[in-house]
């Protein structure tokens, strides 16, 4: 598929995922591992796309789970730009993550802009309510925010994908080893941020020993992730009675 | 005496029958309201009134059915445009209660505007707390984490499974909760919230969440040092070997905890952390520390 087509499709995907159509459905569409499926279909390179998506996902694991609906970082913008470029230019995962991060930060501002402008539709709905115009209220809740979303979201991803790839490829060919090694280190540390945020959101310091237990169970006992989920679930059921002994 | 009992029994049956008939909303109306709220919960969210617009929009099928004059409809619509924000999966329970109250009001029950708004604003905080800690802090990262190994091996299943399972689980839950809210009403919701079982559920989910975060940190945080010192006698001291001889994975653990305690102390300053990680990585790459 041509760069133009990929840029158009990624722009549309980003718009639709960030539209938040379907409360929990859209929350998953925003995740790098789901964006990666779409990129895999577009580029025809599913394995590379999924591997990069998985690496990027770790950085953003806990990010969407903040109370109040404020996005601290936008995994969808990061993924919709960095995964297609990385797959097409054959970048490795660590470098793709390093490329993704600035876009994740920019995404926050785009969302702040959207939520500020969305206030227009609430005021419009106030007027419709006076007239008991229910069709008008439905349009304010669905149609207008969607159009606004397209205007502010599509161009960002389209432009980055369309113009970005040659720039990125040129840059890659000029990069010294100390810089590529820096990206490896960044890629190794950043998943820690995803986990730290999730632990913070769970918010119970007294339960930290379970984290350390899970950590060393993998290193000493070589338990894999699925097995850990099974044992963890059993343990959670066994000890749930402790809940009443402390203030939740 | 016997006859009395029979007649009071039939009277009760008649009353129940009447009550059933007077309930003018059908399951289909509630389903419509539930679906509108699910589809648009965050779509029109604004800093000014967050979910108020979508809550009002989701009540339109109900309001259309219950009120017939333009004035009554306008009143009801304005009532639901007041500030509202919650976690929308558990929040559907509030929707159920609001629907039940609107229905009673339309039947001539003395329910004021402020009591409907009061219930909504009173319950939105506690239910957001429960919903955030179960739906967003536990189920979501756990589902993703569970299938990351598939994605890391290049399989699309790593994304497809969470994409299907997460909406499925939350849809079933929110549909159950809106009906629960509609049938049992606010008093039993409040007892339900104080019930120990809810606490246990959150506690169990948190424990599982932390175990999984630990397991994933061990798998995916990658940090080693290439530092090697040569002693005077010419033997080489490999720093990473010394660290590993104490316990494996100490550097990754240090990375997670440093970021965690920074977050606890300074609040969610993600951008600062991101920039710091980049700077530390570049500097230690140049110096050969990491």
TrEMBL record, chain A:
Answer yes or no on keyword NADP. Answer: no
Keyword terms of this UniProt record: Cell membrane, Membrane, Phosphotransferase system, Sugar transport, Transmembrane, Transmembrane helix, Transport
Q: Which GO terms describe its cellular component?
A: plasma membrane
InterPro entries named among the record's database cross-references: GatZ_KbaZ_carbometab, PTS_IIC_man
Is Nucleotide-binding there in the keyword field?
no
Coiled-coil annotation: which residues? none
This protein is called what? PTS sugar transporter subunit IIC
Organism annotation: Gilliamella apicola
